Amino acid sequence: MSTASSLIDEQRFPQLASLMRTQYERTPAHRNYLETRFSHASAEDFTTLEELASQIRQIAGPRLGEICDGYDFICKIVREEEIFFRRKGRYRLQTFEEANRLVYSDTEYMGRYMDGLLLTQIYWSNHTACYQFYRNVFLKQAPASYDYLEIGPGHGLLIYQALKDERSGSVKGWDVSKASIGQTWDALTVMGMSGKKPELVLQDLYAVPDDSAKFDCLTFSEVLEHLEDPKGALVKLRSLLKPAGRLFVNVPINSPAPDHLYLLRSPEEAVDAVRAAGFEIERAEFFPMTNHTMEQARKHKLTISACIIARPN
Amino acid sequence: MDKQADIVVRLQTIFREELDLPNLQISSHSTPDDVDGWDSLATIRIVAAVEREFDREFEAAQIESIRSVGDLISMIAV
Asked: What residue ranges are annotated as transmembrane (chain A) (predicted)?
């Protein structure tokens, strides 16, 4: 069988087509699922996917094949957590100490996990939709010369959008992991920094002093579910915003993974959690798991990504 | 009804519910390639429902090796 996608126009979307060829060569078992995913993509989606594929191929460099193997790895470990979730109705781990001991401290495991996560931006439609919402709604409506902070910038794809936005002022990223900061820095270096100097620092959100600088835009994407004290984090985020500042939260519902601690059982629970921390909701959108409708996702307790834009009330 | 036929009937109810395909007809030869929506995560949901229905718990390696309805029948019938 050809390893080319039958749904991607190689002339218009060469980066995406090439990526999928590599993925299908390395892991043919994922072909049906991913081709079904692309069969639901709109013309706008394909434009976004081509941009993401270009960025991911830059970040990957000569490691693209290895990163495609990382996608297979992440699917395997998610399946392991999924069976636990279906049997017990909860996530396996409860504390940050457990996650640190069993997951974060295992460098080799984390490397493969992060590689796989990078590709989910393209392969999982809810992840792509969150990226589009962040860029087209959250960043687009930011004020001129906005001060931007992302907590946990990870693969760097979101902070890169702020960095290359000619309307952005200062761009900062905080993380509790030195390795993650290095990864973000490397990603921004290969993608280009548009003549700006992002400030990436080791900083624990919970330890930020109250008189810290305030921001117009705060990005908190796929972090909340990793925390033992999500409420405390949201309250802290509120204190980091300027009076008219805006918070972008992206958090998955019913999404078992080896390092997920905070289980939200509906998108409404996520919205309520943000509201309870002293925010008013500007806009919230929910995106169901790849190849499923929202109705199916709610009925079967499948993963839904909740994207919320909020302001301090 | 023999034991295998009984298992297939009960499995069919589970497949219809988990995949939202009320008219689905399965046989021991059915595979993910010929059942809409049967991906690897759906397999997990189906297995969890099978475990509840048949009061069994399967090993991770058994679950990973499922390639057809026949594989599930074999696991249940042991």
From this structure: none
Q: Which residue has the tokens 């962040």?
A: A134
Final residue before a domain boundary, out of A123, A156, A185: A123
Q: Which chain B residues are within 8 Å of A86, Cβ to Cβ?
A: 44-45, 47-48
Give domain status of residue A152, yes or no: yes
Q: How many domains does chain A have?
A: 2
Report the chain A residue with the minimal C-alpha distance to residue B35: A32
- Average pLDDT (B10-36) is 96
Q: Which of A60, A89, A123 is the last residue of a domain?
A: A123
pLDDT digits (tens, 9 = 90+) for A15-62: 999 999 999 999 999 999 999 999 999 999 999 999 999 999 999 999
Confidence of residue A187 (pLDDT cuts 50, 70, 90): very high
Binary contact (B37, A80; C-beta < 8 A): no
Closest CA to A272 of A225, A220, A305, A234: A234
Range of the domain at A50: 14-123
DSSP string, chain B: --HHHHHHHHHHHHHHHHHT-TT----TT--GGGSTT--HHHHHHHHHHHHHHHT----HHHHHT--SHHHHHHHHH-
A215 and A78 co-located in one domain: no
Q: What is the domain count for chain B?
A: 1
* Chain B residues interacting with chain A (CB cutoff of 8 angstroms): 18, 20, 32-33, 37, 39-41, 44-45, 47-48, 51, 57, 60, 63-64
Contacts of A83 in chain B (CB under 8 A): 44, 47-48, 60, 63
A29 and A118 housed in the same domain: yes
Structural domain boundaries, residue B48: 3-77
CA distance A226 to A93: 10
CATH of the domain at B33: 1.10.1200.10
